[in-house]
Amino acid sequence: MCGITGYWNARGLHNQTPKLLEKMAQTLHHRGPDGYGFHFDKEAGLAMGHARLSIIDLCSGGQPLYSEDKKNVLTVNGEFYDYKRIRTHLRLQGAHFSSKSDSEIAMPLYDRYGLDFVEHLRGEFAIAFYDGRNDRLILVRDRFGVKPLFYHIRNDVVYWGSEIKALFAHPDVPREFSTHAVLHQLMHTMVPGTSAFKDVYALKPGHMLIISRRGDSLDVQEKQYWDMDFPEETERDKSIPADYHIGKVQEVLTDAVQQRLEADVPVGCYLSGGIDSCSMLGMAAAMQQSPVKAFTISFDNKDYDEAHIAREMAEKVNAEQEQISLSADELYGDNYVRTLWHAERTFYNTLGVAKWCMSKRVNECGYRVVVTGEGSDELFGGYPAFKRDMLAHGLDGEHDAAEVASYKKLMEETNRLFRGAILSEDTISHPAMESVCGFTPSWIQPWMQTLAIARPLLHDDVLDMLKGYDPIEAIAGSFNKAQLNGRHVLDKAQYTWSKTMLECQILNWGGDRVDMANSMESRPAFLDHHVAAAAVQIPPHYRIHGNKEKWVLREAMQQILPRVLYEREKFAFMAPPGHTDQKKQQALQLLLNEYMNEQAIRDAGLFDVKRLTAFMKAYLEDKDPVSLVRKDALINHLLGLHILWRQFVKREAPVAV
């Protein structure tokens, strides 16, 4: 696990390149504190940098890596699993290796399979690979986008980096917000492939960029190599019994967890009170010879705290548990600002700050790797919004109206705390979503309602630039309609969420960015593509079985989960919002006073001062819990944009990171 960066100039390099590349790599020190590696080729115009976090092959796994003839150069951020078997197979075919690093297998795989080499890679990764024999650069991102990779192309120069701040370390990369992205951050939903900043792009999950030199210019092609492919309803074999799917999930998850316990350093587990992380801990505890260390967040609000369930799970498997108790002091202030600097985009809830605090504690305990439960809801149908769509559009005739009504009532009551953020209080629709999905997925509806409040707050100049732009239409237009046609309602809900919120939220400020902020690698075993291949084959009525979300996963994990968790309905993992107690209100207000005072609003130029001031006044007077949850989310985005503007556009140094 590391950080990668670099640039390729079709016209060659100048003498300042070493200093510039070193500066770019140094911005990624938190991702790779164990040393830097650089490759310079002045004639070819190539500069590649690597910041290393040592996890596999602690002694000789430095990068960049080279082919035997030194023509090909490789840098990798991430992990390739099952690398020992692959390396042995390649060695039997005549390949030679200079290290025991998992990353090195990519080189001979490319020699044998060309661009299809990525089909043979398993894991979470971002790759920069220079093919000197064909004079082309290949940037690759893993199938779900667990590992970040950004790029900017300007004047026949391509710049790339694990984080945007690495690109900004080069003086030729402009620092400016994308007007469209400002609007998308306010409504919490980004368009795939975009970032918060103008002309800085995120390489899409499951994609590669192939950049070839054509004289003094660069030819850029984007290629998709993987997608989350649900079968069409007419092609699904409905005769396969539930027991088969339950057994298959046990098989593929056992393998995925085992692969992710492979490391030359100790591996721990994140543990919340949910089925996902408890399943990971239960399986890891069965596999490991020594007790597993589990790390749990505890909030100072019993409505949001799940630590008691996590404790029961830890005791069940004799895991050593480290509990991190978080209050306003930890969730706001400098920690809030630091988290934004690492995430490089806004967040709707201080859960991202909580995750930053937890990774910091993991590092302090001497751990560099944890197995996590991210991705389970996406694959097995866990989110309340998915269930709402299933109950509204997707149940078969086996359930009568009264039964469905009782399911809906129970779900709404269980998730009442989250109405206004992750669930809308009203059903709303959009023609663009109706066109591609046949309905408007419930997961985007609360953010459509937030958009209606947020857009009028923008400065008139910004509104003029956004005239005619429909962010919902842009999101809907990004989906591959061929992957939606003929699919079940639940398939469509899971697919559209996974293409947007998984990458820009769950795996960003809920995953890699806040974990690697503290030099700590998280490994989401559910997002193994072999697990995904099994999950998409599970019929919708087994994923959500009556009122039971993730039913197949529950049954597969039944024997290792506490009974209370096996029977419990999905409960969203979320930090207590700012309005829930006076200390949080005061801590939030201190940040608002510093970053969103009247002069700060005018300096950033994103919002109309009068309209924004009126909104903040209405927030302080609001007593409606649903409205407050929505406004809390929006205020986090508003505050986040002003902090990001100061950090990256104004270039004011952040707090010590």
TrEMBL record:
Gene Ontology terms: biological process: asparagine biosynthetic process
Annotated InterPro entries: Asn_synth_AEB, Asn_synthase, ASN_synthetase/amidase, AsnB_N, GATase_2_dom, Ntn_hydrolases_N, Rossmann-like_a/b/a_fold
Enzyme Commission number: 6.3.5.4
Cellular component GO terms held in the UniProt record: cytosol
Class of the enzyme per the UniProt entry, highest EC level: ligase
Catalytic activity: L-aspartate + L-glutamine + ATP + H2O = L-asparagine + L-glutamate + AMP + diphosphate + H(+)
PANTHER family linked to this entry: ASPARAGINE SYNTHETASE, ASPARAGINE SYNTHETASE (GLUTAMINE-HYDROLYZING)
SUPFAM superfamilies referenced in this protein's UniProt entry, alphabetically: Adenine nucleotide alpha hydrolases-like, N-terminal nucleophile aminohydrolases (Ntn hydrolases)
CDD domains assigned to the protein according to its UniProt record, in alphabetical order: Asn_synthase_B_C (cd01991), AsnB (cd00712)
Pathway membership, UniProt: Amino-acid biosynthesis; L-asparagine biosynthesis; L-asparagine from L-aspartate (L-Gln route): step 1/1
The organism of origin for this protein: Chitinophaga japonensis (Flexibacter japonensis)
Boundaries of every Glutamine amidotransferase type-2 domain copy: 2-214
Binding residue positions for ATP: I297
Binding site for L-glutamine: D102
Keywords associated with the record: Amino-acid biosynthesis, Asparagine biosynthesis, ATP-binding, Glutamine amidotransferase, Nucleotide-binding
GO molecular function, one term: asparagine synthase (glutamine-hydrolyzing) activity
Residues the UniProt record annotates as site (Important for beta-aspartyl-AMP intermediate formation): E374
Family per record: Belongs to the asparagine synthetase family.
Protein name: asparagine synthase (glutamine-hydrolyzing)
The keyword Nucleotide-binding is assigned to this record: yes
Keyword Nucleotide-binding tagged: yes
Active site: residue positions: C2
